[in-house]
Model the fold of this input.
Amino acid sequence: MKVLELFAGVGGFRVGLENADKDFFQTKWSNQWEPSRKSQDAFEVYNYQFPDSKNINISISDITDNDFAEMDADIIVGGFPCQDYSVARTKKNEMGIEGKKGVLFWEIIRATKIIKPKYLILENVDRLLKSPSKQRGRDFSIMLASFNKLGYSVEWRVINAAEYGRGQRRRRVFFFVYRNDTEFAQKIDRVFEGDAVLSEENRYDDYIFCQGLFATQFPIKKSVIKNRRSYYQLNDDIVELSDNFTGQAWNTGIMRHGICYSVETEQAYHGNSLTLGDILQDEALVDEKYYLDDDEKIEKFKYLRGPKRIERTSVDGFSYIFSEGGMSPYDYENLPSRTMLTSEGSLNRSTHLIFRNDRYRLLTPIEAERLQDFPDNWTAYKKTAGGDVVPVSDRMRMFFMGNALVTEIVKEIGNFILKIENKEGGPLKS
Done:
């Protein structure tokens, strides 16, 4: 299947799909552009690793309709920009789908309308399901309605990678989008809908809990948490939907023919997860530059990770108390790691702190890559516009991994697509 990778970063989706089957999933086109940076480091890493595809280094908004029309992709993949939904933004500043980067979602819709791929695999922060704070779920419903208007259905799940065997507690919402005229979609109609009008809220329980993509690849307990269910018809008018939306999107759900059904679920993975200790390098291989021998920095980390109650003054002149709970003095190696952010490696509360052999140190770039299931030294080099291969700074390598996804999750999604494309049975047993 021919793949177009949008918002490609350093190639997380491509790595995951090729780990599923490199011959089956062939990425022919990619697009990566960082508008806030003069140096296009992520693109140059991608271009170094994947010189065989057509790699486009311009804003997706500048890719013309004709350019998209020449891409006969079977699958579009991408982790579209999520800054406007990020937990790092305050509620006061969040802008949702109308935000500066949230509007880039419409470029995915534009590409989908022109190319008409069979499938899309998308990823975003889980807060998207509750954005914006004053009308929770509206932005996500607009996205669902947009795909519905193009003749697509959407299945989604919030996945914590550590709950399915990986070494990082990273929660992201993944979307499996498929065209309604595909054999897969028509089989759903036959198995779960027949000729009847969809009217019962639990119509898709078997699909969600047993036979769908996420149920198959990421098993869940066959019960609904606290009876949290949501069932509603999307308004065909997206403006009306935006203005008057009321609804709820839980962590697991499906949208077909404009009807949304979602439930709150809990994972049922029975294997062992990797731990932080499993991914750390042998200390003999760790460069001295990653160790903290500066007492002032060590004390600063202790302060940042400790509990606080600080009196502050708002921009409006009001005094308030800022408080936050304490963290462990360093990261425990017998557990999966905390979520890695783009600030990893800096003097920051979120930075991982390792304590071994009576010494503190930071994660190495290789360890950061392992937390996202990339090969070691994936981001070590880049190919510049002039054709030179040069090393990448540690700071940028950490930034890349903070922005990346856990590639083994994508691999499992790819494995499901392999099953339905190869008609091996399994999903949707009729």
Observations:
- The radius of gyration is 22 Å.
